[in-house]
Design goal:
The complex is a heterodimer of chains A (147) and B (368).
Chain A: H1 2-33, H2 37-40, E1 42-55, E2 61-66, E3 77-79, E4 83-86, E5 89-98, E6 101-108, E7 111-120, E8 124-132, E9 136-146
Antiparallel strand pairs in A: 1-2, 1-3, 1-9, 3-4, 4-5, 5-6, 6-7, 7-8, 8-9
Chain B: H1 2-19, E1 22-26, E2 53-55, E3 58-64, E4 66-68, E5 76-82, E6 92-100, E7 105-116, E8 127-128, E9 131-137, E10 160-162, E11 165-168, E12 176-184, E13 190-198, E14 207-222, E15 251-253, E16 266-272, E17 278-279, E18 286-289, E19 302-312, E20 321-326, E21 329-331, E22 334-341, E23 344-350, E24 361-367
Parallel strand pairs in B: 8-14, 10-15
Antiparallel strand pairs in B: 1-14, 2-3, 3-6, 4-5, 5-14, 6-13, 7-12, 7-14, 9-11, 9-13, 16-24, 17-18, 18-23, 19-20, 19-24, 21-22, 22-23
The chains are: A alpha+beta (147), B mainly beta (368).
Chain lengths: 147, 368
């Protein structure tokens, strides 16, 4: 009797879980094809930054994970269909495919900003940038949620 | 022989340059270090803070509305906002440790991008720049009463000009690279320069939405040059209200040297045509500022001011000359007065018909 009720509860839960997972996969499949600018439209507020740094001198790797206070050093992004607004300034942007990745590109004060879009769905955006510094290589992954 | 002389001149030029020190703090040269901000006093905010961080060998402290991002173009962004749509009001303070020595002169230069909280590349006419108060101080610590020195805030600012406090108020709101420069001639040693990017003047009608993307701070020592003897300044970053309101007055603090030199008196002539006079409103007459006729004249004291009247024949048979009618005074039914307003001269006229003069009027004035 007990087992009967348990089965009755578990099956719908499993089905629901599977459906959610399928939905997640779907959006990722869409992402892998080509992101349209309309997919980005909205206000994206940073929630976390992960920075991986490989020091050129000693090859030491350090990881910085900041979920708190992230908004104080990474401004929110606001996308329209043709401009991205970052730190109180708007720039024309493009989304291009390079090596099967979607790349967000824009010129900020004449300097190319280059981010790989790791994930985009209705409420989450994850951007990754790789920066060659004099001191080493800095990889930054920024997590945004839709506001 | 010619070559030797050229070489000596070249050598003396090089030596004279080397004899005076120069410091450059270049925010674009900071190489990434994950621990860079650990000792700033704002480590979790990942930014400069009230504790010193060395940049190019000089200690830097900040309080208030600043940000620094590692992605190029690297700069220290300073925010001065007042009366923006969001209602927030903020300023930023940057302090640099530097040994300023008495009886030497220093040029402090700020180089960066003048930016606005405005998406289009044409700034609305009713949005204005903030100002830079640049001050020499005895302590590198930033004194403020704000609750959190790491967050956007508004610190109180002493709005005075003098030997140790200068004002830069730029009227040009265009998005462009700018170099702002001030000169200090301290009479006593000072240990730091404080750069306050502020949303002055405080006026509910003025919207200040300025961002300055600071690239470099340069301090150059040169031979002593006399400063003063008196100091006045204007908020030239915003249009001047008419009539003058106290919100725009800046207090001058005079610190006279013990062996001050006499300042030579300068003389100028102004020709004001009928259409240059601006109405002060109903029955309040007309007025004009000296700066609206001639730029780059700074007046600390008016020695004399006259309106040029009718031609007078020389009794000795020489060429006729115009009579000088001292102000306050009347000429052709117009009563003229003048006043010194923050380094500028305001000439006002009144008459029974409340109309501007029909013909051009000449003024003669002496000042220093």
């Amino acid at each position: 009797m007990k087992n009967k009720y348990l089965t009755a509860w578990i099956i719908p839960i499993l089905l629901l879980g599977a459906s959610c997972k399928k939905q997640e996969k779907l959006s990722q499949v869409e992402l892998a094809k080509k992101i349209q600018k309309t997919d980005l439209v909205g206000n994206w507020v940073p929630t976390k930054i992960e920075t991986l740094f490989i020091d050129k001198k000693n090859q030491k790797t350090s990881r910085v994970d900041s979920s708190d206070y992230v908004k104080f050093y990474t401004p929110a992004y606001k996308f329209t269909s043709d401009q991205v607004n970052e730190d109180h300034k708007s720039w024309d942007y493009s989304v291009v495919i390079s090596d099967k990745s979607n790349i967000l590109e824009y010129l900020k004060f004449g300097v190319l900003q280059h981010y790989e879009i790791l994930k985009l769905n209705s409420d989450q955006l994850i951007l990754k940038s790789i920066n060659k510094e004099e001191s080493g290589i800095r990889t930054e992954v920024i997590y945004f949620k839709k506001n | 022989m010619k070559k030797i002389i050229t070489f000596i001149i070249f050598l003396s030029l090089v030596i004279s340059k080397l004899a005076y020190s120069q410091a450059t703090i270049d925010f674009s040269t900071i190489t990434y270090d994950p621990d860079f901000f650990n000792n700033s006093g704002c480590p979790t905010y990942h930014r400069f803070g009230p504790n010193p961080i060395s940049v190019n060998g000089y200690n830097i402290r900040t309080v208030g509305s600043t940000s620094y991002t590692w992605n190029a173009p690297k700069d220290l962004s300073l925010y001065a906002w007042g009366n923006t749509e969001t209602g927030q009001r903020c300023n930023a303070i940057v302090a640099v440790d530097y040994p300023f020595i008495a009886n030497k002169t220093y040029i402090v230069e700020l180089y960066g991008m003048n930016d606005h909280n405005w998406n289009n590349w044409v700034v609305p006419k009713d949005h204005y720049n903030g100002v830079f108060w640049i001050k020499l101080d005895n302590s590198p610590e930033i004194t403020t009463n704000v609750a959190n020195k790491c967050k956007e805030s508004l610190s109180p600012v002493e709005r005075t000009v003098g030997r140790y406090s200068k004002l830069v108020a730029d009227r040009s709101i265009a998005f462009e690279m700018k170099t702002y420069s001030v000169k200090f001639s301290p009479l006593e040693n000072k240990s730091s320069v404080k750069i306050i990017f502020d949303s002055s003047p405080i006026d509910p009608k003025v919207i200040i939405d300025n961002i300055f993307r600071l690239k470099t701070i340069k301090i150059t020592e040169i031979p002593y040059e006399e400063d003063g003897p008196s100091y006045t300044a204007s908020y030239t970053n915003v249009p001047r209200p008419r009539p003058w309101t106290s919100a725009y007055e800046i207090q001058g603090v005079v610190v006279r040297p013990t062996d001050g030199h006499a300042i030579p008196i300068k003389r100028e002539t102004l020709n004001i045509s009928s259409n240059q006079w601006i109405s002060n409103g109903d029955n309040l007459g007309y007025s004009i500022y000296l700066s609206e006729i001639k730029s780059n004249i700074y007046v600390s004291e008016i020695i004399s001011m006259s309106v040029k009247g009718d031609l007078i024949q020389d009794p000795r048979g020489g060429r006729p000359s115009q009579a000088l009618i001292p102000l306050p005074g009347a000429y052709q039914n117009n009563n003229y007065t003048y006043q010194l307003v923050n380094g500028d001269i305001l000439i006002t006229l009144t008459n029974p018909t409340n109309t501007p003069p029909t013909a051009p009027v000449d003024f003669d004035f002496a000042y220093n």
